[in-house]
Amino acid sequence: MKRILLSISSVFCLGWASLSQAGTQPALVIQVPEAFYQHPVRLLNPYLNYWHNRAEAAEAVGLSSFQAQNYATSSCEAEAKGQALVVIEPNMFYNPQSGIFYSEITAKVYNQPGADSALGKPLMTVKGQGQSRGWLTFNVEHSTHQSYQQAFDQVIQQLQQNPAFQQSLAQTPIQTYQALCNSINTLSQPKAFF
User: Fold this and answer.
1) Digit-coded pLDDT (tens) for 120-153
2) CA-CA distance, 28 to 165, in Å (whole number)?
3) Which residues, including other chains, have CB under 8 Å from residue 57's CB and lie 6 or more apart?
4) Is residue 187 within 8 Å of residue 142, measured between CB atoms?
5) Are 29 and 181 in contact (CB under 8 A)?
6) Which of 2, 39, 47, 110 has most Cβ atoms within 10 angstroms of its Cβ?
7) Of 40, 38, 33, 35, nearest to 62 (Cα)?
8) Would strands 27-31 and 72-75 be described as parallel, antiparallel, or unpaired?
9) CB–CB of 5/59 below 8 Å?
10) Strand pairing partners for 138?
11) pTM over 0.70, yes/no
12) Are the C-beta atoms of residues 157 and 66 closer than 8 Å to each other?
């Protein structure tokens, strides 16, 4: 009888411990550098030009994508507290002949909150690409969001499969990344993006 009670109580304790560990979500700070807000991308069509603000669209899709994969997210404009900082560099291209929006997301992950770590190498860099069919004359933002969503799905999948990223989230406590966010905003971005 003691063995049965002991085994039942141990099963309840293990179940309670796994539920308490599963309830904690990894916390990430998502940032799109300020330079991407200042330079929208021009999507060309023979008779129509469209200026797309890729920073706002990528940040909105990125926050919702990470939250859908059970990550607690915040931005640098808010409290900027998390276990890692994910810097998103979005790029968008439109092919008017085929009517396809091509997106590329480069995500750099930092796990050190100091301002000087922006000059060093990030923990890891991953890229994701997406494409979506659409036209510049109808519902452009929906098509660009679909393209960004595909790219973010690839980025998140690569992050989840990377053991260095998972180990960093498991070992790093929640920290404030505001100083690192500010220093990344002051760095100039490569001209290839603009």
Assistant:
1) 788 999 999 999 999 888 889 999 999 999 999 9
2) 12
3) 90, 141, 144, 145, 148
4) no
5) yes
6) 110
7) 33
8) parallel
9) no
10) 135
11) yes
12) no
